[in-house]
Write a structure and sequence with these properties.
The protein is of the alpha/beta class. The chain has helices spanning about 30-40, 55-65, 85-95, 115-145, 165-185, 210-220, 230-245, and strands spanning about 20-25, 45-50, 70-75, 100, 150-155, 195-200, 250-255. The chain has one domain: NAD(P)-binding Rossmann-like Domain (Rossmann fold), CATH 3.40.50.
Length: about 280
Amino acid sequence: MQRNMDLGFFSTDISFENSAAIVTGSSRGIGRAIAIELARQGADVLINYNQNKDAAEEVQSEIEALGRKGVIIQTDISNIDAHEQLLQTAHKAFGKVNILINNAGITRIADILEESPDQFDLLINTNLKAPHFLTQRVANYMVENEIRGCIIYTLSISDSMASDNRTAYCISKAGLEMSMRAYAGRLASHWIKVNGIAAGVIDTDLSRVRIPDYEEAAEKGYIFMVRPGTPEDVAHATIAAMRLYDTGVVLPASGGVMTPLLNLRSMSELNMNKS
């Protein structure tokens, strides 16, 4: 290896200056926080939204207030035919794309015994098929243009913790983790880093309704959770995953929820040590 070789995101001193990112689902929640944090680090950002244009424009304003370029595009990422427009819009605006954040995702509540094929397909197409093939498109672009970039997947603790009323979501995230690992192995020789973030109980529109259940479980000692997470917590983990000297790995952003624990509070009432 040449001493002055460009190591891209495998460098020990990574800079986001002159970087350009596509962040899917970045008008709100975790995607919004990631887009703004990337701009704070020095990157220009393509803001992708599906329905809420006003929210996307607010993100654009925050990015521009940080002195970076923010460009908006309305795209339903489940439409794979639209991926080329997404990429070309970013390339035209910034001159290159060296960061892809696969963040967009949806969830639906459905009992596993009643879930319909249409409900299942909706989750799989949006959460798994779409980012898998968007990664393929952007990765080929990076390889063709010899761009030593970085691709990050927003994953979930649900890829290993089953929910019988959100089964399609769990399956989509489990499959997405394998997509991340496969691309990491394939792209390492091209100096393209690929990592994932396992988001826990984050205070967003997608998972806010679940927070009381987790808080109750933590109070009873079934799980450990220091507090519900914020989108900014996941954004900080995303930056860490981009700086990390590794590829094909998942960084947790779950506040301890995945830490094995069985510390039932009611056990404190027992007095089994006295004779």
